Amino acid sequence: MAKLDLLQGTLDLLILKTLALGPQHGWGISQRIQQISENVLRVNQGSLYPALQRLDTAGFIESEWGASENNRQAKFYRLTTKGERQLREETQQWVRMTVAVQRILETRA
Amino acid sequence: MIKRLRMWWDGGQLDRELNAEVRFHIEMETDKYVAQGVDPATARRMALRNFGPMEKHKEETRDARGTMRFEELVQDVRYSVRTFFKSPGFAGVAILTLSLGIGANTAIFSVVNAAFFAPYGVRQPEQLVRLWGQDLKRNQLQLGFSVPKYELIRDQQTSFASFGAVTAIAQTLLLDGREPIQVNGSFTTSSFLDTFGATPLAGRFFRAEEERGAGVAVLGENLWRTRFGADPSVVGRAITLDSAIYTVVGIAPTLPAFWNSDVWTTNPFQYPGVNEDTIRRGFSYLQPVGRLKPGVTVEQARRELEVLAQRFSAAYPANADAAWTLTALSIRDDIVGAARSSLLTLLAAVGLLLLVACANVANLLLVRFTGRRQEIGLRTALGASRGRIVRQFLVESLMLSAIAAALGAVIAYWTLPALVVLAENNLAFASDIRISLPVLAATAGLGLLAGVTIGLYPAMQGSRSDIVSVLRDGGRTIAGALGSHRARRAIVAAQVAVSLVLLIGAGLLVTSFERLRSQPAGFDSTNVFVAGVGLPPARYPDAESQARFWLKLREELANAPGVQRAALNSAPPLNGGFTRAPYAISEGAVPPLNERPLGLTVSVTPGYFATMQIAMLAGRDFSERDTADAPLVAIVSQATSRKLGGEQGLLGRRIIMGSQGGGQVMEVVGVVADVRTQSLAATSEVEFYRPVMQRQRPFMQMMVKTAGDAAAFENTARSVLARLDPTLPMTGVTTHETMVAQSLAQQRLLFVLLSVFASVAVVLSAVGIYGVVASFVGQRRAEIGVRMALGASRQQVIGIVFGQSVLPIAIGLAIGLGGAVLLGRYVRSLLFEVSPLDPWMLAGGVLLLAAIAGAACAIPAGRAARIDPVTALRGE
């Protein structure tokens, strides 16, 4: 099965969800999204950083430099309370939307 | 907001962080592949590929930060400077063109700023209004106030917080008690300087109890600086003014325009040489000023004055000024006066000029930016966003315009003095003309506007490049240039239109000026020396002593070496300063004083008409026998004689002149040709001449017809005067030709400037047309070569090239013609004996510009016709 490119706007949601599992650096986020989606979703790794910056500016996440698992300096991102709220809202919306799309697709012709 | 500022400030730090973060990412990704057994080099390549275009992502990240990096700007600027140096010709032409446009604007801004916004150095000048009397029935405006009128208005008005009046007079000041100098003096009410909102530079102004004269004087700033070394201890010292002693009590700052004075003294209710009876009967020589109460408008003051005017005519029904109405004008409107429409015309003209300049530079940039499509294609391929490219172009055009604005300010600074000279030092607000901060701010704003205007469209065009096609055909393609070619032709049309408007405007003004200057003035100014002399009342107290002096002076001047004829006149033609007196024909029922019209009245010595070569049409000139004791006589102009005397004329008939004793009866003994006394544009309807022996004048102007250069007569004139009375200064030394030129100052300023602006605009347009056609020929070399190879004649080739430009030029001419017709009515008031719709002017402008445009096309067309098909084809 071919890998799917991420829909515009869903990347933010996935980043928030990933960070809800715990603080992570950029590369880690990209790996985790791929792992969890069992390699179906492909994150264009470079586009991760503009998204992270956007979320940071919006106040949904915050960042801090720290040591990575192999003891290199890495920038770790963490979800803020505002980010948690945003994640809940976006998740609900996503679910509502997918359910709606699903219904339309299942309608018999 | 703070966060954004901090980010901008921390831009460098954040970028280092971003780089570290990206580096970490690539290392981790590489490690991942290495762990899977890929060799390190390949692993790194794969990691980079997964990341995608790195610079693009970095840039997007920065953009997400929401600020533009300062470094990026510096980069853009540095890059622009480098491109300028790579093609200094382009940058030079662009900057020069723009700086001409901006410089012209800056210069005119400083004039307009002086006229409309100068603070005058007084408190809240916008509250100040000048009051005028006017006799609308006889179309006489701008009349002064008589003493009774001033007193009534002062006591009954409610619009003004304070109220005062002043009258100007030439006076003689003895410096150090010895050297006499002529000064511009002013008699003022005690309230005047305070009403005007001036602040004493030293000492104080007048007190209410000093109003009727108290031997105190206030020196004007200019005299204080030039003659008293700006010494504050002058306050308290005594000065000798018109042979009387005054104590200096203060120093007044320079007041705007004709309100300024060298020496201020009080008691304006008496006037030298005018008796009390004349003053009480309505001699109107006071110039009143009021400071509006807060919240009161000029319009409200005007309405109140209408009521007060009626009260005045009820209270003084017999006075000469009883029937006049009153009006008020803000001080600024009064000072700017007739110059307003000239200034607005100039402002519009420089605006149009800048438009043409911008169009030219935009045209250049369009060629330049589209010519750099290969470079842009490369940069896009390397990940630069379109926004970034547009920004780069805008930085380039903004830098051009910024340099041009700076240069423009310098140009304006250099040309301003010339501009003031061009106005023959005859602009009321000339002293306020300077390059001030608001002017520079306007210039900077203009530069910014010009930069964006000229850069935006070319930048959009230039950045819209299809990478593949550009890189493939090496940038030689003209497919994309087609759109920009259309834009350039539109620009040419606009330039031609604007230039035509300017050209026609300039043509109208030049024609007006020439017609004005060639008006039959009625006098001959050639080699006529002019200088003023004032007699201090203390030493020349009566009409007899003054008359004796004037006749003696005239005689001595006439006998001086190099003199052909000499005379004296109280108000030389075209120099202002005339007086008007009520008059009537002394036959049958004579109308009462207050219903008599006012006629221009000039005092002269015998020999005046011969000196100025004014034709004596009937009767005789004045003679030395027309003394104060002899029967009163007058000479009238031909127009006066016809208007008042009808078929029969006025010669030998009696008229009543002036207000003294209800008017004096005098006989008309001569009729002279009409003279344009007030303005070259028209003869005075009514003009009376009276012998100075019978009409006391303490101030007269020598008018000496010399054999050679009139200006060189000054020393002789001085020694003649010194022989008669060493204490008398000579003032306002000039020639009558200069006076005539000064009377045309505003028209001259307007027509010279507009001609310059129009010429520059036309040259710029020609360059623009040339550029478009030349680049068309350059781009189509191969095509033209093919056509020629297939048998097209040279004429056909020239036809093709001309065909390219005929349409935009024709459209431009049509729009310009329409614009000129539409704008014509706004300049109508500035024109003399030429209609703004004059078909010759309009057609002449169109033909001239068409010819110039044709010439601009002809050069590249000729080059196209000489294209050798073989080389052209091989070159492809």
Describe the structure.
The complex is a heterodimer of chains A (109) and B (876). By secondary structure, chain A is α+β, with helices and mostly antiparallel strands. Chain A has one domain: Winged helix-like DNA-binding domain superfamily/Winged helix DNA-binding domain (Arc Repressor Mutant, subunit A, Orthogonal Bundle), CATH 1.10.10. Chain A has helices at 10-20, 26-36, 48-58, 81-106, and strands at residues 4-5, 24-25, 41-42, 61-67, 73-79. In chain A, the strands form two sheets. Chain A has a three-stranded antiparallel β-sheet. In chain A, helix 1 (10-20) crosses helix 2. The longest helix of chain A has 26 residues, at 81-106. Chain A is globular. The two termini of chain A are 27 Å apart. By secondary structure, chain B is an alpha+beta fold. Chain B folds into five domains: 2-67; 69-122 and 338-477, no CATH class; 146-320, no CATH class; 495-517 and 746-876, no CATH class; 540-726, no CATH class. Chain B contains 28 helices and 22 strands. In chain B, the strands form three sheets. Chain B has a six-stranded mixed beta barrel. In chain B, strands 14-15-20-17-19-18 form a six-stranded mixed barrel. A four-stranded antiparallel β-sheet of chain B has the order 13-21-12-22. Residues 474-480 of chain B have low confidence and may be disordered.
